[in-house]
Design goal:
The protein is built from nine helices and six strands, in the order E-H-E-H-E-H-E-H-E-H-E-H-H-H-H. The protein has helices at residues 12-24, 36-48, 74-84, 99-108, 121-133, 158-168, 173-182, 190-204, 209-218, and strands spanning 5-8, 30-33, 55-58, 89-94, 113-116, 139-140.
């Protein structure tokens, strides 16, 4: 079982629930951070002290307040922690149920488990911790397990995310095509990019490109 755990969660009620799970599993050495920046600093300090954490349990959405933050959400925290400490086990614990975002966490950030906050989340969190502590097996809540299946035409992928990020930065469609060609990212033809944009507008029910960027920013996708 894990010996040292850090929790990144800004809601006290959720944090207390996670702590109870850890205590029930006889894990007594754990710390809690309400801010992603703080959690990352603790993880880095633990590595420097040669007392690294075994497990990170992180929410994905964090409310903003007066503090200026460098790491705004759990997605960024998870990615940075994975780069800093490749062998740490990571559980994403969130209300997020969008398949493309969950799949991205597994594929790009290498999370070990995704637990959906809900009616069964406490038992599922216990199960996830028990599974990943002794094996390389992944865990995902049954309600969102379809996220790991092969994507269909109605889902968005990493290329779509890149297009959205470029649009949010003010990059024109022609410039995106040129960037993709130079980086050997496919598809990169004008017709393909136009089709993707049309699909994204339909998917998010956006009236235009500006509306599309606004919606995806609000959803934390970009």
């Amino acid at each position: 079982m894990f010996k040292k755990v850090i929790i990144a969660e800004d809601l006290d009620a959720m944090n207390l629930g996670i702590q109870e799970v850890l205590k029930n599993l006889n894990i007594v050495d754990f710390q809690h951070s309400k801010y992603c920046d703080e959690a990352f600093l603790k993880i880095r300090r633990a590595i420097q002290d040669n007392e690294p954490y075994d497990l990170l349990i992180s929410d994905l959405s964090f409310k903003t307040d007066h503090r200026e933050v460098k790491i705004a959400n759990g997605d960024e925290l998870i990615q940075k922690v994975r780069e800093l400490q490749p062998d740490i086990k990571i559980i994403a614990y969130s209300v997020e149920d969008k398949s493309f975002r969950i799949k991205s966490l597994f594929d790009n950030a290498g999370i070990d488990a995704f637990v959906l906050k809900g009616l069964n989340s406490i038992e599922e969190l216990k199960k996830a911790i028990s599974i990943i502590t002794s094996s390389d097996q992944k865990f995902i809540s049954p309600e969102v397990a379809s996220a790991m299946q092969e994507k269909n035409n109605n889902e968005i992928d990493d290329v779509d995310i890149q297009i959205l990020k470029h649009l949010s930065a003010g990059t024109s469609q022609d410039e995106i095509i040129e960037i993709f060609k130079n980086s050997d990212i496919k598809p990169n033809s004008k017709s393909a990019i136009e089709k993707r944009l049309s699909k994204l507008k339909d998917f998010f029910k956006a009236n235009n490109t500006v509306h599309l960027v606004s919606i995806t920013k609000d959803m934390g996708i970009i």
